[in-house]
Design brief:
single chain, about 150 residues, transmembrane helix, transmembrane, membrane
Length: about 150
């Protein structure tokens, strides 16, 4: 279920939303796709992750990171607050005049740094591998959206 949700949020839904947006309203493809990757990849992804980490921190500590220490769940709660903060901003940014893609930049940078850190890790499980590459995808697509906005 995790892999399906992550692929929907970071690949399928941003792409479909962007294509529909371009077909209906037009616009710069880089900006439009970046905006939808910001909404889905940063906004919904980090919001859902934050809620999950608050309600079930062991899923992150044990299931994704492979840490068995119960004390690590306290750190995951703190991480959840950061994820919720960035996710909620990413959710509303496309709809707040003047924010646009820029509201999602901190979340995209966070995902990019997490993805780069995970690349070097040996022995990743399937969920962590999917998280690694989709984190990097979101980072790249939001960055391309920002570049598109700057050159538009």
């Amino acid at each position: 279920m995790y892999i399906l949700l992550v692929l929907l949020q970071t690949l399928v839904l941003p792409l479909v939303s962007g294509i529909i947006h371009l077909a209906v309203a037009g616009g710069s493809p880089l900006v439009v796709l970046g905006l939808w990757w910001a909404f889905w990849g940063v906004g919904t992804r980090l919001t859902v992750v934050g809620i999950s980490q608050l309600t079930n921190p062991a899923r992150t500590t044990k299931g994704i990171l492979g840490i068995e220490d119960h004390a690590a769940e306290l750190v995951v709660h703190e991480l959840a607050f950061a994820n919720l903060s960035m996710g909620l901003v990413g959710l509303v940014a496309p709809f707040v005049p003047g924010w646009g893609i820029l509201g999602a930049v901190p979340g995209a940078i966070y995902l990019g740094m997490a993805g780069f850190r995970h690349i070097a890790k040996q022995g990743k499980n399937t969920e962590e591998t999917v998280a690694t590459w989709t984190d990097l995808l979101v980072f790249v697509m939001v960055a391309l959206g920002v570049i598109g906005a700057l050159i538009a």
